UniProtKB/TrEMBL annotation:
Database matches in Gene3D superfamilies: Immunoglobulins, Peptidase S8 propeptide/proteinase inhibitor I9, Peptidase S8/S53 domain
The entry's keywords: Hydrolase, Metal-binding, Protease, Serine protease, Signal
Stretches with biased composition (Acidic residues): 386-405
Protein name: Serine protease, subtilisin family
Entry keyword annotation includes Chaperone: no
GO molecular function, one term: serine-type endopeptidase activity
Signal peptide as annotated in the record: 1-21
Active site positions, chain numbering: D129, H160, S318
SUPFAM superfamilies in the record: Protease propeptides/inhibitors, Subtilisin-like
Upper lineage: Bacteria, Bacillati, Bacillota, Bacilli, Bacillales
Domain SLH: 524-582, 583-646, 647-702
Family: Belongs to the peptidase S8 family.
Presence of keyword Signal: yes
Region Disordered, annotated ranges: 372-429
Amino acid sequence: MFRRTLSVCAASALLFSYPVAGLANDSVSNQDDTYVVGFNEVLDLDVIKAAGGETTQTWERIEAAEVEMTEHEAASLASHPGISYVEIDKEVNVSSERSLKNWGLDQVNAPNAWDESVTGAGVDVAVIDTGISTSHPSLDVDGGYSAVDYTDSYDDDNGHGTHAAGIIGANQPESGLLGVAPEADLFAVKVLDENGNGSLTQMLDGIEWAIEEEMSVINMSFGTLTDSNAMKSMVDKAYENDIIVAAASGNRGESSTSSNRVEYPARYDSVIAVGAVDENNERAFFSASGEAVELAAPGVDIVSTYTDSTYGPLSGTSMATPFVAGAFALLKEAYPEKGAEALRTILQEEAKDLGEPGRDPRYGYGLLQIPDFSDASVDDNKSIPEESEDEPIEEPKEEDIEDNLIGEGPIETPDENEEISPPADLQSNVDYNDDGLIEVILSWDHTEDENTSHYQIYRNGEAYEQVNETTFIDFDVEPGTYTYEVTVVDADGTESEKSETVEVYVEEHEEEDTGFSWPEKVNNSPSFQDVDDDFWAHGPIEELSARGIITGSDGVFRPGEPVRRGQSLAMIGRLLDWDDTPVDTRFPDVDDSYFGSGFIAHGTAEGYVSGFSDGTFRPNQDITRGQMAAILGSVFELSKTIEDDRFSDVHDNTTGQSAIGYLAEQGIVSGYDDGTFRPGKKLSRAQFASILYHLGEHLIEE
């Protein structure tokens, strides 16, 4: 079964991605794969059955199901109006790196909490990972669940989950090993296998179990670069149930620069994204940066529990995350009356500011600091971990750790003798400039280190160019078909294997007339019984209808319904007189029977929009305000380069950010009274018609 690999601790195929994230696969497999299918409103298994799929399980909280079906059946199902998304099952895996030291507890002030009798007692913490070693002498596992398909046991057969659990709640003072919340109740939720790999569906099962069992805190030291509607819905449900969710931001950072590489689920608003720092409170070179980072915590050379009753050090944002999960366990005990949002605010305000003043992409609000709990009401008579006067706590020594070396860690720091990993996730986009020049834009994923010298670009199998960044632009390309690969070259001149190959087809392209004018009015243009004269968008709807840009159906326009991908391209295509001849597109869910197939073929060929990673286009999926701005910005080349902070929720990494600034500056779009733009909010048909009309008027005035 084909499953896409997700890296641990992203970026997903956006609705209108720019640049286009590669070419779709023209071949359609008849092999059954596992998909997650989400419904707009009510889960309807008959729809899945009618498409040829077989439902294997459901998640009613998010109106989604796990379905076995072929790629063709999935594409067909994706075009059903009741379907919100169809996602192929993906793999997740852990991410950590090995080293020595044990220093994080003092750095986050954990012992001060114990002095106030706050130890996390009675707080249920779910460690969603590879499981937890139930026989480890430093851990008490209160229960758990296995979502993997080869065992019902939640015992750890990898070591990663046990390491995370020890950072949260190890409780063996005589050995010198304590967690942040040593009396928290640990629950092992096994969603990753012995190799640290798992699937999206397994992760959904694990989070759902944690919700049903009313956990207080969830720790997820893994992640993926691929966005998922199902994943977002499930972590949102957990947060709605007042469960704190902490997740690793990812180990895809860059050594000297800040980049937006925070992975999912950490990138979602309902999740606390955790970055890693070293003993000097400097960002670990591997720790991902981005606007989503909320807190930083110790993540380099952290000694904790491991398999077979051993201890050892690992590094990674996977290690930083359980410090934060443990801190929330302490807060839940100290302030049981406070909800998840209030507790989250406490740690944001208590954080030790690092880097740039205020919240920044490298450290978030700053280094995790456990607050003063002198005002908390807790049981003073319970057993508190403390140093014995007769037998001093024995700190783990390097030689002791060497006796129990962690063998194959989930991810190890490469040294000079290890094989160089090739670049991953090579993407391509063709840019047809107005002056007639054609460019091929390549981008790939690779975490640079001090031993990386450069990247070697291969075109049509031959060495072509060398670059120092993870992007490359092939300028002034002639029409034709090209193949590209990329390798990594280290300081000694050693070259990695080639990346995956991408094939790029460059079409003939003529310079276009960039002037804009309204299409001629048509005869017998429709009027709509559900758009009254006093309706706020009556004028734009009437004008676009008169020019054949919008048509409606059966005498109604349905102005309040969300506008869909196919509909938006059809309206833009009619406005700009694109070829509307029905065609079988390269997308299996858009053939010549779909009313907007010609417009979709044109829009994708021009690079204005792209399909999804599974090869589908999903013409019936709703678009958001941000995605609307992104496609209008791409089609009409709308860009605002001046800094604009008028919307508090529009940042450099927001979809359509530049076009949003342009449209707002021209008065074509506006925000809400609270100062937000809400780029993730769905856009109605009436709103899209109004924006399109006023943009056209503005272009004519220009």
